[in-house]
Backbone:
């Protein structure tokens, strides 16, 4: 198994992801793309750009911070910094694409679904992730996946680094002993 | 995603009590401000509630009258999905002679997570915090501190000007009896503002200079220089008559009248912690005017108290 994916790999994976999403939605109909803070938001931005170049005309954007909806808040202390959620587009009746960087236990996505309910009632909610590393603790699955890494040990860490937040595009799998 | 995602720095909040601002670092104060930004957003949603403190219980323990602080804490707790209990001194066993510490321990024994305490004795919150395991948030202890008021005043100034450092802030009135003044002094000086205290010598002794602030007994001397004027309430119930000039005299020398307002900087920002004595420390026209931040302070108080309740509760799991 590879432990490192470089800039051109990330570019390729993102393009694959954009192609899968583009095939699933009508470019002439409204679509809301909501990223989960922090790196899900960056990926949502990139996907939006790629989808626009594929002819999508009517994309609404938003950012979701799920910190206050986490089910492990009482265990993880000290308080993680809760960022603001920015959803100013109407969600009711419009398809919504939820975007995150890595899908692991599924708990962030569960928190995000709880949070979205407070903002409206989308026609459908679909999930796009750059990396699916397995290890689900909840009955949650992604609809569109950039790359699947099925054999990452539970105690390893999958880090997605992006130019906008980290200065470099890469995916790094860090085994336990490296930390 | 790792639990620490979203951190802008490596800073970790570790206080499970908020007793005063004197002990807080500038970094801690800034962390409360940043956290409050996020909670302000919650209040703009159609569903104004998040589940962060679901299953937690907060008790408002007020040994002095309060309208906005108590209501603000209750609403802040509700918006975080915590349950709220109100403990009223008049109908409680304190009137049968129970001590404050016994009262607090009994309240805690019922499974309370946060005690919000207002008490006429300076240091009451600190004392209680040493005898309970739950979080204690000081909602005013005598003339000592009112930390959430200091934080919300700071937040409101920061929001208005986009910064705090370098601003000149006048705090005017009955300083010696004011916990709001003390918490303002700590918050503002730590964040780099210049604080100018204004009041008659009987209500503003020179000893305040040791806190690194200017002490001025002539309001008109500084009125044209300041960016913010925070008018304190004349506390009729707290002042000894010999300290205090007549009400007319106070208004004449220290009231924010239209005449004084006209000599202020054009973009001066007017604040008041409430409740106001209209026509005494502040004229109605100014209090209700476009440069008044008084109602904004109340709105921001909610976000700041949500941030404080969230932070102290999260710190419990790691300290306890």
Residues:
């Amino acid at each position: 198994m590879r432990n490192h994916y470089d800039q051109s790999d990330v570019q390729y994976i993102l393009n694959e992801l954009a192609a899968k999403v583009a095939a699933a939605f009508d470019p002439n109909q409204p679509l809301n793309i909501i990223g989960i803070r922090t790196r899900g938001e960056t990926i949502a931005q990139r996907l939006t750009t790629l989808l626009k170049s594929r002819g999508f005309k009517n994309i609404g954007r938003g950012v979701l911070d799920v910190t206050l909806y986490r089910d492990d808040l009482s265990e993880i202390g000290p308080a993680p910094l809760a960022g603001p959620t920015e959803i100013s587009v109407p969600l009711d009746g419009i398809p919504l694409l939820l975007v995150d960087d890595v899908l692991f236990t599924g708990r962030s996505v569960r928190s995000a679904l709880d949070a979205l309910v407070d903002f409206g009632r989308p026609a459908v909610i679909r999930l796009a992730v750059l990396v699916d590393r397995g290890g689900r603790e909840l009955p949650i699955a992604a609809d569109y996946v950039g790359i699947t890494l099925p054999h990452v040990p539970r105690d390893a860490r999958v880090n997605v680094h992006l130019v906008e937040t980290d200065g470099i595009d890469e995916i790094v799998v860090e085994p336990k002993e490296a930390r | 995603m790792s639990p620490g995602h979203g951190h802008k720095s490596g800073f970790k909040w570790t206080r499970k009590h908020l007793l005063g601002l004197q002990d807080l670092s500038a970094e801690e104060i800034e962390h409360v401000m940043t956290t409050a930004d996020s909670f302000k957003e919650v209040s703009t949603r159609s569903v104004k509630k998040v589940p962060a403190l679901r299953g937690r219980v907060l008790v408002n323990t007020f040994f002095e009258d309060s309208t906005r602080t108590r209501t603000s804490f209750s609403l802040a707790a509700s918006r975080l999905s915590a349950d709220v209990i109100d403990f009223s001194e008049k109908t409680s066993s304190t009137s049968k002679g129970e001590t404050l510490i016994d009262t607090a321990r009994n309240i805690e024994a019922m499974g309370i997570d946060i005690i919000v305490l207002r008490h006429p004795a300076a240091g009451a919150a600190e004392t209680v915090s040493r005898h309970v395991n739950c979080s204690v948030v000081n909602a005013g202890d005598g003339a000592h501190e009112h930390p959430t008021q200091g934080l919300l005043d700071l937040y409101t100034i920061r929001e208005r000007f986009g910064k705090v450092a370098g601003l000149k802030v006048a705090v005017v009135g009955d300083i010696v009896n004011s916990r709001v003044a003390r918490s303002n002094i700590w918050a503002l000086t730590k964040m780099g503002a210049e604080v100018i205290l204004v009041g008659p010598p009987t209500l503003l002794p020179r000893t305040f200079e040791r806190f690194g602030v200017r002490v001025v007994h002539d309001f008109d001397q500084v009125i044209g220089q300041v960016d913010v004027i925070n008018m304190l309430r004349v506390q009729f119930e707290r002042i000894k008559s010999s300290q205090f000039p007549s009400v007319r005299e106070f208004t004449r020398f220290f009231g924010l009248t239209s005449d004084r307002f006209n000599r202020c900087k054009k973009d001066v920002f007017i604040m008041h912690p409430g409740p106001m004595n209209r026509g005494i420390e502040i004229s109605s026209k100014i209090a209700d005017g476009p440069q008044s931040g008084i109602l904004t302070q109340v709105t921001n108080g909610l976000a700041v108290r949500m941030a404080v309740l969230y932070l102290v509760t999260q710190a419990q799991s790691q300290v306890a």
Summary: The first helix of chain B runs from residue 26 to 42. Chain B has a mean pLDDT of 91. Chain B has eleven helices and nine strands. The first strand of chain B starts at residue 57 and ends at 62.
